[in-house]
């Protein structure tokens, strides 16, 4: 105000009504000393006053302080504050934080108070981190219903930024049942009719998943035991090839192969990369590992594990990889190893309650779950164990309904799904059951169309996908090694409780590792 010709620049006395009495002395001291103490109680007042007085260095300092304080509970408030005061760098960081933590932010009271344009900025963003578009629809409807008298006129504008064609009709019907305001309900019904008739006047019928929600399943290594031609085989029909399945386009694509062919490796995603570790090649159990960089489609070596192992569990949690049990040398093992990708180093970190191989391992909300597998006591188990990495403690949870090993274990929503596997009397299962993390209970869901064990699996966009596996156990060797491998792929939709066929693998494989990116 003092450097752009406003009337205040000509006055000897200026009133600053927006600057609290305790803030101006701090700013005067800063002008003379170049030093100031910024805290939670003063930062916003200091930034407003510094912006008004054109103290850019202080504005920057306040902005850096607020960046360090970003949290899902305050990201939207800081975003609005920064935009109001034209702090675009801070606004960008706050917006990115809100987008990355969308499912927390969208359920906060601050979200319901957003102005229309800032809501649209969020809803239209490619960077919203969501598993499915229903996670955008429900908050949008809640925003409209928070003040229906004022907001119902914005229905079509708000809904136009939700990618409704990506939401199943059943989910849309369920969402419609939650709407209380008749005008908003009519708007949603109208949009549904627009989509059904294929007009596309109100929503884009060619909607694509948001950039941060596009998910692909990587399937690495494994074995192939059929009569068709298949690439990159070494001795004993072990594969080094890597395939990618786009869960939206329903297409398979071949990626760069691993440096080493592996059967029964541990495969897991961590920080946007995929790690393939251990496994078996011929009669040799492996300790070495490699990491895949999606940006350049290349694999590179990492440090080997302390113990060579195959048919073990591998999962990523809190910036580290955790490896559990498996075949270690000539016997099943109970050791746990932790990999630090920053230091490229494995360390032994405790033991499982008993040696085990052929189990499923997943993580959910800070805990790691080990399900099924084989022990010295039981060839196939019903066990569900829970490991807390923070304390190193193990707990025994409700057992599965069916004993199984070499089953696929996948988390979708608040459930752990256990799919197929080998069972007593050399049976390959079609059975699928799921565990409720909330209730500590199991229930059976629709069975697979085709029995399979040692299949690759993942979950995203509201569906499960299982690929390949072995179709039968014939002979003693088939207890742990595939005999006839499958190329078929199945998708499971929880709302319909049904499996349906999906595009098959380019060539059959079983006992591969899989990870979701």
TrEMBL record:
Highest taxon of the lineage: Eukaryota
Sorted UniProt keywords: Actin-binding, Kelch repeat, Repeat, Ubl conjugation pathway
GO MF assignments: actin binding
Keyword Nucleotide-binding belongs to the record: no
Signal peptide range: none
SMART domains the record matches: BACK (SM00875), Kelch (SM00612)
Functional pathway: Protein modification; protein ubiquitination
Domain BACK span(s) in chain numbering: 75-177
Keyword Repeat carried by entry: yes
Protein purpose: Probable substrate-specific adapter of an E3 ubiquitin-protein ligase complex which mediates the ubiquitination and subsequent proteasomal degradation of target proteins. May have a role in synapse differentiation and growth.
Name of the featured protein: Kelch-like protein diablo
């Amino acid at each position: 105000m003092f450097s752009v010709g406003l009337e205040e620049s000509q006055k000897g006395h200026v009133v600053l009504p927006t600057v609290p009495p305790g803030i101006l002395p701090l700013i005067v001291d800063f002008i003379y000393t170049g030093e100031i103490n910024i805290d939670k109680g003063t930062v916003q007042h200091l930034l407003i006053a510094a912006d008004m007085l054109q103290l850019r260095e202080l504005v920057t300092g306040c902005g850096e302080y607020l960046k360090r304080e970003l949290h899902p509970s305050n990201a939207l408030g800081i975003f609005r504050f920064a935009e109001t005061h034209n702090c675009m760098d801070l606004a960008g960081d706050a917006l990115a934080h809100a987008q990355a933590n969308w499912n927390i932010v969208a359920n906060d009271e601050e979200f319901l108070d957003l102005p229309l344009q800032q809501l649209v900025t969020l809803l239209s963003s490619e960077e919203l981190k969501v598993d499915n578009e229903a996670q955008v629809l429900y908050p949008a409807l809640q925003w409209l219903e928070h003040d229906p008298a004022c907001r119902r006129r914005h229905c079509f504008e708000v809904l136009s930024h939700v990618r409704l064609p990506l939401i199943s009709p059943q989910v849309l019907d369920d969402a419609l049942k939650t709407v209380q305001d008749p005008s908003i309900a009519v708007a949603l019904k109208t949009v549904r009719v627009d989509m059904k008739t294929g007009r596309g006047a109100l929503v884009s019928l060619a909607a694509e998943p948001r950039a941060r929600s596009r998910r692909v399943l990587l399937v690495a290594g494994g074995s192939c035991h059929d009569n068709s031609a298949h690439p990159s085989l070494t001795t004993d029909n072990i594969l080094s090839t890597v395939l990618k399945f786009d869960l939206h386009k329903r297409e398979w694509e071949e990626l760069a192969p691993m440096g080493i062919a592996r059967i029964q490796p541990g495969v897991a995603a961590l920080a946007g990369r995929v790690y393939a570790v251990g496994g078996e090649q011929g009669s040799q159990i492996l300790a070495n590992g490699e990491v895949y960089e999606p940006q350049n489609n290349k694999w590179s070596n990492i440090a080997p594990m302390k113990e060579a192992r195959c048919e073990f569990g591998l999962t990523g949690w809190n910036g580290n990889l955790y490896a559990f049990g498996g075949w270690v040398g000539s016997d099943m093992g109970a050791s746990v190893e932790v990999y630090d990708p920053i230091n490229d180093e494995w360390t032994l970190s405790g033991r499982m309650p008993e040696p085990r191989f052929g189990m499923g391992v997943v993580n959910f909300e800070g805990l790691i779950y080990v399900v099924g597998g084989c022990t010295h006591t039981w060839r196939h188990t019903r066990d569900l164990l829970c490991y807390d990495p923070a304390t190193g403690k193990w707990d025994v949870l409700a057992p599965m309904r069916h004993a199984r090993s070499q089953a696929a274990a996948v988390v979708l929503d608040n459930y752990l799904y256990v799919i197929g596997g080998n069972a007593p009397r050399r049976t390959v299962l079609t059975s699928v059951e799921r565990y409720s993390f909330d209730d500590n209970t199991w229930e059976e869901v629709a069975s697979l169309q085709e029995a399979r064990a040692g299949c690759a699996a993942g979950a995203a966009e509201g569906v499960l996908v299982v690929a390949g596996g072995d179709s039968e156990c014939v002979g003693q060797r088939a207890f742990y090694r595939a005999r006839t491998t499958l190329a078929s792929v199945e998708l499971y939709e929880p709302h319909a409780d049904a499996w349906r066929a999906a595009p098959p693998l380019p060539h059959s494989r079983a006992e591969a590792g899989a990870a979701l990116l």
